[in-house]
Every structure is written in structure tokens, then in C-alpha cells.
Amino acid sequence: MSFLYRFVCLCLCLTASAASAQVNYSAAPASSQIIRGTIFDADTDQPLPNATLQLEDALQVYGATSDRNGAFSFGRVPVGRYQLVARFLGYETQVITEILLESGKEQVIDVRLRAGAETLVETVVKGRRPDNTLSSVQTITPEQVLRFPATYLDPARLATAYAGVINTNDQANNLSVRGNAPSGLVWRLEGVEIVNPNHLSNAGTIGDRALPSGGGVNLLSAQLLSSTRFLSGAFTPEYGNTLGGVMDMRFREGNNQKHEYTAQVGLIGLDVAAEGPLNRRTGASYLVNLRYSFTGLLGLMGVSFGGEDIRFGDLSVNLALPTRRGKLTLFGVMGKSSNDFTAKADSLREEDKDRFSIRFDSWMSAGGLTYTQMLGGRWQWRVSAVASANKNDRDQYPGSLTGAMPVGNPFQYDRTTNARATLHNQFNYRLRDDRRLQLGLYLTRWYGSMGVWRDRAPLGFPRSGRVQEGILWSWLIQPYANYIWTPSEKLTLNVGVHGNLFTVNKNSVALEPRASVRWQPVERQAFTLAYGLHSQTQQPVTYLTEALRGSGESFRNLGVGLTRSHHLVLGHTFQIDESSSVRTEVYYQSLFNVPVSSRLVGGVPVGYSVLNLIDINELGERPEPLVNKGKGRNAGLELTYQKLLVKNYYLLVSGSLYDSRYQALDGVWRDTRFNGRHAINLTGGKEYVTQRNTYTRIWGFNGRVTQLGGFRDRPINLEASRQAGATVYAGSDFSVQLPDYFRADLRVYWKKNRARYSRTLSLDLMNVTGAKNQAYSYYDAVQRKVVQKFQLGLLPILNYRWEF
């Protein structure tokens, strides 16, 4: 270690101590609060004593040093925006920005530093957990979710502000990542894949049926979440069974020294959270959150919206229980949602849906435990046991059971159930300060079932009108290994392998190499290159699809294998200063073994591919015999400029040019449903702060403008639709280009911090200009014509939040 490096570190320690000595905590203003936390080794969870920390705002610097247990505290400091700089000899310096301190809640920050090249180049991050991923990753913090416009307090909706991420419908968080279908994105909780964790999973869908990977409202409230990692491609070995993206969510821990409460009410719902110590001596804590929809509360009072009753509620709990050598966490979330639509009288019917009464019910639950323990000075063991399940039921019947029945099968029943139970073991071993090894295994018991019934008469028991029905049990086994080497402060290498074994058939085995490199030739500039071979299972409906009775066909799709893809990403990052950067990425994804239809029409294969699926039952209602002979390709250029919230304003500008295509059995390359070609987002905000002796007040003004190339739709056969009384498409290809999409959102908030509590009043105006964006077209049997359905218009969301 050089003398110069030791000298600089000593000067930094003395500076921090001097700054700390200048702060008179006893004379802190009325609107002040405590910032404290613990600093750990990121690989072993070993506390780091005598680490130096600096807390900085626009006017002054506070200093602190961690004790022998790694704990640090800055005492009471004025409320406001801060950044935290953490340093420890032989470890990478880390700068955590966009910290919001409010008087109603202590700010507890666990910082994890990674041993590495001895360098004074600072790593600027928003989260508090280092990641092995070198490219195509974003960290979404709860503070950002509460600040950005039109997020519905959901990190998935915030992710659409970044390059390459597009929401397929305003009513849901159903994301298309880099041209992939939304089913390509997987949700993870505490490092383990779970089933779709969203309320109202039928929101915004064409057939009013469940989504495989999205919904109207995230089941996990932003009040419980820690930083969320969002990954969009060329994943490192610990991420498997995905092609399009990863939404990696984790619970935060409750305050282990003080009981605190949060209550908020708004258009989304009533949200109440409590946290505090279970045992102050051991540091055990609890965090619990209860939420119920605002529309549900109105429904309980007899208020309806156009004959529609929408309700959802959820309960979440997280318990952190430190042990002598590690930490045990127990967590769980459960929720239920429903959408009840009542048919209208004949004289009031304006569209096809008005003829039917429709009941949609959905529930979801997830829970489990994690245990982390140090094994000596260089080993860390982490085990997770997580189970999750959801069920969706939809009943439809005519509003009047007398008189002429509508054309087709007016009585419909749909049921889907998904469940996963996973045991995840992971070992982290630091061979040397510049070399780390990660070994892991996911062992998942996989369950899926479906039922689709269509009839012209009320369903009996046993049910008549059976179209599809089945149950599927299987195992999903995913071992992985990851080796990270930092030979110098300018170079980081990451190589590994991921395995995928799905026991549903012999065609579902894959061994996937992964590699990435980060090279920093000069300070503030870095190049990244990442490659990965990836694979993913299908939705249960895809495997369980079979031929219609009486159709003359006979098939089941249980032999469908994994969909696979090569993914290559080249990136460049220019760190302009400590709060702003420009990132450019070029990517290419080549998909193969894609399930496509083998059915022939007039001797020509139909152009059906699972790469265009949105609804779960889109295939179940119209069965297709599938073979793994399709292809796909996604290519694009992404540019992102981001200035974090420093000096009272922030800015995020992202743009992407991309092309998304697929190939069916006929060998013709076609546009996928999600090929909008371009996307531009501009998000920014400004805060105005007023400080008085008894309070601090903040006004925040935030805006977002989105401009997207229009998605694609299938042409509709009008005459065939009139005869069938329902939408009949002219083909399987998406040859109709929808107009470009434009939306502007505003968010204004007012925060006031008193001595013992803080309040936030906010107003979101979604689609403030009232732009009419086309979503899709369908045949309306009431109007007897093809009708265009539009996205949401102007939607105001008022919310009041109280922390104490």
C-alpha cells in the first residue's frame, strides 16, 4: 500500500472527525431527526469497525466513525436531502445519494462495502447493496417511487422512465423490456422468483383475463420495500429462468430502536404501516403494513363506478431476528382483489361488455424465511425458503337469462392457478480481496393448473362446455457458479455458468455460460461488455393446451421445451460528476427454440408465436399445436442521461431505438406485437425548501413526458366477427401499426416537518393533456362494428401521508 494512499485516508479521517466535532447535536433545530446505521463487508456480512462516514448537504458536512460492531450515528441533524460517503481502508469508497431525512421517521442505513483495488475513485450509487451486474441494471429506491410522477407507488411503473422499458397498457404494470413479451420478465422477492405479485391482473387486457406478469397495483406497498434492482439483459449467473428482465424486490427492516408509524390515504387506497423493536438488546425488529383500496371503501358504502365494483386489500409482514452469528428474517404477504361488473339494461347498453355480468377474483400470497451466517472470515452462507401462489377466477354470464341469447357462448368460466416453492442455497467466498466466488442452487417445486369453459347454457356440475383443463406438477432445478476477479482498479471480470433443468419433459435442459467485463481506462469513463445464454419455461397454460373436442385434432403441448436466447450488450458510461452521468448501451438478442404453431391453413403454416402473448388465456381459448422451431431477434441502441437529486433538482432523460421481430414455421420475419421502434422519456423535478425555527417546508414540482412508437395489432375479419358475435382476427401476424403514443404527467407535493411528525400532501395528474392513445381494436357485437379501445385519459390521484 502506497504512502500517499495512507496519508490521504488519514487526512480524510481527521477531516471527518473535525466536521463531527463542529456539530452541536444538542442544539439541533426542532425539525431534525437521527441518521444511523451499520457498515458491513458486502461479501461476508462482517461488521467493519472504525470506518469513516461523512454526511453532506448543500451547506455543511457531518462526520462519524463506526464502532466495533460497525454501528454509526450522526445524532440529530436538520431534516432535508443528504448524501452519505462511506470509506474503509482496502475497500471501495461508496457514495449514497438522494437520502431524504424527515422528522417523522429515523433514517436507518445499512451500508455494504466491497473489498477491492485500493483506489480513491468513488462509486456513486442510489442503493445500499453492491451488485455483481456490470451492465443493464438500475436501482430504484423507495424515495424515488414516492417522488417520481405517475408511479402508483410502484417500482415497476417507475422503471418505464428508463431506456428500453415500455408499459403495454396504462392500466397495469405489464412491462415489455427491450422488445420482449411481458411474460419474459420475472419477479423476485428476497432473491427468489415468485408468481405474479399484483392485484387486478386482468387490468387493461384485451380479453379481460389475467396477465402472467403484471397487474393494476403492486401487491407490495412502497412503504415496505428496500431498494429494488431492475435488470434488462445479459444477466449474471445468479439470475435464471428469464429472457426479458428481472424485478428484484426486497423488504426493508423495521426500526430496531424506536416504534414508528405511517398512514396515508388517497385514490389508490388506505395504507397503514407500523415498525419498531421486538428486542432492543438483540436488534430484532418488526415491520407490518395493511392496505385497502379507496374504491373498495366506497363500494362498502354503496358507491359504484358505472356499474363496476373494484376492490383490493393486502397485508405484509417482515420480521428481522439477529442471531449470534447471523440473521434470520421471516416475511409474508397476502392479498385479494376483485372486479365485479353488472350488466346494464337493454336500453342503456352502449358496448359489448354491457350485455354481461362479469366477476373477476384474484388472490396472491408469498412468504418464507432467509438466514444469513458468516462462516469464518471469508465465507458467507445464505439460505432462502420461499413459497408463492396465485389464483384467478373469471365468471361471465348474460345480464338477462330470458329471451334470445347472444351469439356464441355467452356463459364463460376461466380459472388459472400458479404456485412455486423454492429452496435457495448460496455460498459467497472471498478468495482474496480481488477475487470472489459465488455458488448457488435453486430447487423449485412448480405447479400450474387451468380451466376454460364456454357454453350457451348455464354451466352445470360436472361442468359442460369444457375447452381446456389440466394440472401440471414439475421440478425446476437451477445451479449456478460465478467468479468475479478485479485484477486492477481499472478492470473487473465476471464469468460463470447457470443451469436450467425443468423436469416436465426431456427437452427442457440448458447449460448457460455468462461473462461480463468492465474496463475503466481513465477516471470517470468506463466500458462494459456482457454476454449471456438464457432460457425460460413457458406459462402453465402453454403446456396444458390441447385440441378442442370434436375438432378432429389431437395434441397436447407437454413436450414444449425451454425458450432460449443469446444476449450481447456493449456499454459506455461517462460519470460527469458525483451526481450526473451519461450511459450508452447497444444490445442484440437472438432467440431460438421459440414455441410456434405447427398448424397449417391452406397448406401454409400460421404465423403464431408465444413471443406475442399478453393474456394468460390467449392461447388456452384458441389452442395451437406448438413446436420449438421459431426464432426471434431484438436489437437496439439506448441512451440515458441522469442527474440525481442534488442541489434541489434532478433530471432523467432516456431514449431508445429498437427493432423486435419473430419468425414462425413459414420462415418469414415479422414485427412482434411490441415493435414500437422508438421510445423517449423526459423526467425531472425541482424542490423549494423553506426553513423556520419550528418547521421545515418543501414544495416539489415533478413532470414526465413520454413519447413512444405505437405497438402493433392484428387485422380483424369484420364479416366473420359478425357471424361469430365476437372478434375474429384475419390472421396471426401483427401487421397493423398503431399511432404513436404520447403522455405527460405532473406531480406536485407539499411536505412539512414538525418536531415529532412529518406530513406530505401530493397530487398526481396522469395524462394531464388528456391525449387519446390507442390500445387495441376489437369487434363490438352491440355496435356491430370494429371499435378502437383507448388508454386512460386524464386521471388525478390525490394522496395524504403522515409519518410519526
TrEMBL record:
Signal peptide extent: 1-21
Coiled-coil parts of chain: none
Keywords assigned by UniProt, alphabetized: Receptor, Signal
Spans through the membrane: none
Gene3D superfamilies hit by this protein: Carboxypeptidase-like, regulatory domain, TonB-dependent receptor, plug domain
InterPro entries given in the database record: CarboxyPept-like_regulatory, Plug_dom_sf
Protein name: TonB-dependent receptor plug domain-containing protein
Organism: Rudanella paleaurantiibacter
